Amino acid sequence: MSQQQPAIWQDFFRLLVTAAANADLYNQQHPQVTRLCGKALELIKSLFGSKNQIDILLIDQNIVLDETPLSSNLHTVRFVEALRVHGIEHLSLQRAISQQELLQLIVLLTKRQDLSQQPKSSTSLRFGSIDMSKAGQTSTAVGATPLPSESDLVQYERERLSDICTGVGKKRSLSLNGLKEIVAHFLQALDQELNPLLAIFPLHQQDQYSFTHSTNVCLLTLAHARRLGLSGPLLHDIGIAALLHDIGKLFLPVDIINKPGKPNEEEWQIIRLHPVRGAEYLVGTPGVPQLAVVTAYEHHMKYDLTGYPGVRKDWQQHLGSHMVTIADIFDALRTKRAYREAMGANRVYEMLTDLSGSELHPELTASFLQMINQATVPATAPETT
Which InterPro entries does UniProt cross-reference here (predicted)? Predict the structure, then answer.
């Protein structure tokens, strides 16, 4: 493998994973998916050189090309993890591979793919498994510590948040150190180019909604805050505030929170109490950032100060609260609920745009939507020679 090829391979896998994220966000026929697939096809054609076939081995969380391991990043690990779910450990690509066949590979990387369907090989794209008893030496030779995939990372922190909040529900102290570690891990992942959109997918377990939603809101808010240039203690405080914005729901009746349908008026009045309940709990908890208290109280206020709880007309909302509110609404609309389906990305974009200036902070909404758009468009591929 030449010195330039590893970078081209990294870009190839990045394009495939990003195309899959777009297919999840929109659909397989979306022009963005077609464009990214076309770029990936151009790259793979350039990598064949004098060869007619390229074999890709997936060993542990690593990609091995020509018996040489490729350096891991979040995109390559995501590629490996997505294919191993289907039992795929070996890919064989022929020089004549078409864009349609490459799209078939992209579909296998999507999070909405039906796992009951067996991947089908085609003329120029073949899938298989490898005999790990024979590949053991190669696996050892890889030797690199695998990075966690996006799905593993977010799921781990989601479960940790669930444990922390369950403890609060049982009258145990809030684990502030645990919350700080979740935020630190998310920031570390963002430093390694984690795409925040890859953490978002339709939910199937209603009882896990609160924890899934809170980690999604945290990740989206942190990505937004970094885009705005925020750093240091304020960035960490915003992450903790995002994780805890809905903590007041822990103090509401469980049957209302988990009701499989829209709440009635009486139940809705109880639900509207959760910002106050959350702020009351957090203000009495030592070590919790003041911003977390403020955000818990303000996250259902609107930019025009309607919403709840009601406040005086000269109330000044914190910008952190505005950011969490935007991410909160985005994730809620993109998530499947018991009483409605998840909304498509285009519809969510239109709704947030319509709410900008009335219910949502206009400048922050614009920058958030720009971030979402850019998260689905990779950087320009490097020149090949």
Answer: HD/PDEase_dom, HD_GYP_dom
Cα(270)–Cα(21) distance, integer angstroms: 37
- Is the bond into 309 cis (omega within 30 degrees of 0)? yes
Mean pLDDT of 232-247: 95
pLDDT at 173 over 50: yes
368 and 331 Cβ atoms separated by less than 8 Å: no
- What distance in Å separates the CA atoms of residue 297 and residue 282, rounded to the nearest whole number? 10
Please say whether the beta carbons of 86 and 119 come within 8 A: yes
126 and 154: one domain? Answer: no
Which residue has better confidence, 55 or 171? 55
Tokens of 52: 């007619």
Of the three residues 89, 109, 142, the one that is the final residue of a domain is 142
Whether residue 161 sits in one domain with residue 91: no
* Whether residue 212 has pLDDT greater than 70: yes
Report how many domains make up the chain: 2
pLDDT digits (tens, 9 = 90+) for 22-38: 887 778 998 989 999 99
Q: Tokens for 39?
A: 């770029």
Residues 240 and 327 in one domain: yes
Structural domain containing residue 133 = 5-142
